[in-house]
């Protein structure tokens, strides 16, 4: 692959996007249903390709958390297919009239929802992103150019082939979904300069990737998404509820962006709560990186790994079975810590006090703020959006899980009857 071929991909995606935007919702839904069906019927082929990536990853010394994000098995493939089907059932956003007004002079003015055009996505590790984003882009009438990480090269390649074949059978150009067939990083830089073809760039990965896109992209981009996520255990919290919520937020899937990174515990709740959660964390193999006060409460325990927290731990998205633990004197202290160390992603409070809950909801400035619920719920599927292309911590264009409507813009529609401006 060379630079000329990359530009050819961009040009053909732009051309395909024009046709895609005018297709019926029924045709686009058929294409997505085809993708789901092909995923299920091609499970063995996908698993074989994924095994090559897993083997190569182990040889390279990738961490277990990265290998978990990379893994595809029968269950995860079936989940991808179900997620695609869930997108089919969502309302078609293309052509929706957002609002309509008749002006005093009789002009009818409305806004109509339209696709963005071509979405570029650069992502790491998670091959399910190939399917999720393709389905959402097709449903919202957008073409997509995908550039997955080298660690998932074989998985992404076979998934893209399945998707392209499935949409052709529905009458959609295969150029509506394209993948960069090279692991050479120079093509990332070139892709970030293709603003004549790509209308929006979305990075899905760690802080370094997000920062690179923010720095180099010549087109609009979603440059948030890194999650340093907190759960605060208030003095009024039900401790059993707090144990369940924190355990779920940390352990259910530790390698994703909405997993808990830091647990903040009110000083009055800490003596009873910390031993309870430590016992649960011990069973899951969670390392607790504790401040001085939480260390003194927990003392020396053989069943759980407890280490002193370093200052950088409060700013780390762990993506593994590691949790920062800090005792705070008040709700205000918890809010200050989140303000200083949060990334605007997902924050939760566990409390039985309505005043504390209201203050937390009003004063924490993140894409999703939760009361008595796990941060793991900050997810497009959980919020009723179907699959998501990303979770944005930006405040312009889109914030939080980005589903179908977040992949559209609008144009003004003006209907007159010989109107001229005086």
**H-E order:** HHHHHEEEHEHEHEHEHEHEHEEHEHEEEE
Q: Largest beta sheet: what is the strand line-up? A: 10-9-11-8-7-12-13
Number of helices: 14
Note the main sheet: 7 strands, parallel
CATH superfamily of the largest domain: Aldehyde Dehydrogenase, Chain A, domain 1
Describe this structure in words.
The chain is an alpha/beta fold and 422 residues long. It has two domains: 244 residues, Aldehyde Dehydrogenase, Chain A, domain 1; 149 residues, Aldehyde Dehydrogenase, Chain A, domain 2 (3-Layer(aba) Sandwich), CATH 3.40.309.10. The chain has 14 helices and 16 strands. Helix 2 runs antiparallel to helix 5. The protein is globular.
Feature tags:
422 residues; alpha/beta; Aldehyde Dehydrogenase, Chain A, domain 1; Aldehyde Dehydrogenase, Chain A, domain 2; 2 domains
Topology:
Layout: H1 3-22, H2 25-41, H3 43-60, H4 64-70, H5 74-88, E1 97-102, E2 108-115, E3 118-123, H6 128-139, E4 143-147, H7 153-168, E5 177-179, H8 186-191, E6 200-204, H9 207-216, E7 229-233, H10 239-251, E8 260-266, H11 270-284, E9 287-290, H12 292-298, E10 305-308, E11 322-328, H13 331-341, E12 346-350, H14 354-363, E13 368-371, E14 390-392, E15 400-402, E16 408-415
Parallel strand pairs: 3-4, 3-6, 4-5, 7-8, 7-12, 8-11, 9-10, 9-11, 12-13
Antiparallel strand pairs: 1-2, 2-16, 14-15
Offer a concise description of the structure.
The chain is α/β, with parallel strands linked by helices and 422 residues long. It is built from 14 helices and 16 strands.
């Amino acid at each position: 692959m060379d630079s000329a071929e990359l530009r050819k991909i961009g040009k053909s995606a732009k051309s395909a996007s024009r046709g895609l935007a005018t297709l019926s919702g029924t045709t686009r839904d058929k294409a997505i249903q085809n993708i789901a069906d092909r995923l299920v019927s091609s499970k063995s082929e996908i698993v074989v390709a994924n095994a090559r990536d897993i083997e190569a990853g182990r040889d390279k010394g990738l961490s277990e958390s990265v290998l978990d994000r990379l893994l595809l098995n029968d269950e995860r493939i079936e989940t991808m297919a179900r997620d695609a089907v869930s997108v089919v059932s969502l309302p078609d956003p293309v052509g929706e009239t957002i609002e309509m007004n008749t002006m005093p002079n009789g002009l009818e003015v409305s806004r109509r929802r339209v696709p963005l055009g071509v979405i570029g996505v650069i992502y790491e590790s998670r091959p399910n992103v190939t399917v999720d984003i393709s389905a959402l882009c097709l449903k919202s009438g957008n073409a997509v150019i995908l550039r997955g990480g080298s660690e998932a090269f074989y998985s992404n390649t076979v998934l893209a082939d399945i998707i392209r074949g499935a949409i052709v059978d529905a009458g959609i150009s295969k150029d509506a979904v394209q993948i960069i067939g090279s692991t050479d990083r120079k093509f990332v830089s070139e892709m970030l300069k293709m603003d004549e073809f790509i209308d929006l760039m979305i990075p899905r990965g760690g802080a370094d990737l997000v920062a690179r896109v923010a720095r180099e992209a010549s087109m609009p981009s979603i440059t948030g998404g890194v999650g340093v996520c907190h759960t605060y255990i208030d003095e009024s919290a039900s401790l059993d509820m707090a144990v369940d919520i924190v355990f779920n937020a940390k352990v259910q899937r530790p390698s994703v962006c909405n997993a808990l990174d830091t647990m903040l515990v009110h000083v009055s709740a800490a003596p009873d709560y910390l031993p309870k959660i430590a016992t649960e964390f011990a069973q899951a193999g969670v390392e607790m990186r504790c401040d001085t006060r939480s260390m003194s409460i927990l003392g020396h325990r053989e069943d759980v790994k407890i280490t002193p927290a370093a200052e950088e731990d409060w700013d780390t998205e762990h993506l593994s079975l590691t949790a920062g633990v800090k005792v705070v004197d008040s709700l205000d202290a918890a809010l200050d810590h989140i303000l200083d160390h949060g990334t605007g992603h997902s924050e939760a409070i566990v409390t039985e006090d309505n005043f504390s809950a209201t203050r937390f909801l009003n004063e924490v400035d993140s894409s999703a703020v939760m009361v008595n619920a796990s941060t793991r719920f900050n997810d497009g599927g959980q919020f009723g959006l179907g699959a998501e292309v990303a979770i944005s911590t930006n405040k312009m264009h889109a914030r939080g899980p980005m589903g179908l409507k977040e992949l559209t813009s609008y144009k003004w529609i003006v209907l007159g009857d010989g109107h001229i401006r005086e």
